[in-house]
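Lecture 7 notes: from sequence to structure.
We start with the chain below.
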Amino acid sequence: MAATAAQCLYLSGRFQSISLSSSRPSATAFKPLSFSANTSSFHAFSTGLVSVNPIIGRQSGRSISIVCEAGKKADSAAKRARQAEKRRLYNKARKSEIRTRMKKVLEELDALRKKTDAQPEEVIGIEKLIAEAYSVIDKAIQVGTLHKNTGARRKSRLARRKKAVEIHHGWYAPEPTPATATV
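Predicted structure tokens for the same chain:
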């Protein structure tokens, strides 16, 4: 239920009962409330918490204006906190898996770069690791754990590092860009 703001009418005398009126025409009728003078908030409706704030008016006598607010259920905040904690742990595990996969790929690429007698076939195993890392990154983007630009940047980082190793060993030679002819 959305938070409903209700205004209490002017009271004369002591705090024994309050008549409530709602600004929404479709709102259900409020029941008169009974409470003691020292009560500042209490459960009055089945749908939420009512906060009562007395404001002394400028009129003569004992006329007092009271504002009542019926808010959300008290345990909705607790539910949000539970949901946030569950999402935090889920996202933390996904991000940890991404970091672990990237670290494995980067370590393998560094080891391959340091080898002097490396063969081009050794890249195939690393390409499988890269494919697994790409898959984990794409899943994290799909469920909303990572932003799409962050995922793209991480995948690009792996591809650039792989290409650097291939260039280092001479397995990949970038094609020279054709020079434009000037007339």
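Points to note: Confidence is low (pLDDT under 50) at residues 1-16, 39-46. The first helix runs from residue 76 to 114.
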